[in-house]
Amino acid sequence: MASQISEHLRTGQLGENHAAAYLRAQGYVVLRQNYRFKRAEIDIIAQIENLLVFVEVKTRSTDRYGYPEEAVNTRKEELLLGAAEEFILAQGWEQEIRFDIISVTLTTPPTIHHIEDAFY
Asked: Name one GO molecular function term (predicted).
């Protein structure tokens, strides 16, 4: 069981690293990774120009059992919205915001799918 958990965490971290590198290559500045507030965690908080982007990263080693982004449900969205609200208040952010999903499939090379405005 422990090896399954550590493999799951390793896969997730690898996906987040690929997503952060992808965002940087697209001109985003990654402000925070793994921002936690209460029971929620925002995988990546990035900025491009005057836009603050909250990114949920979903990673799979294969798409055999569906696409990674399909794992983002309403409960996860609610947790992310609450954490994002706290971050916005703490930073005094008054510009535009957006919620994205980046799905990463760990093929060779990795497949990255960036879904902008994934939810509100």
From this structure: nucleic acid binding
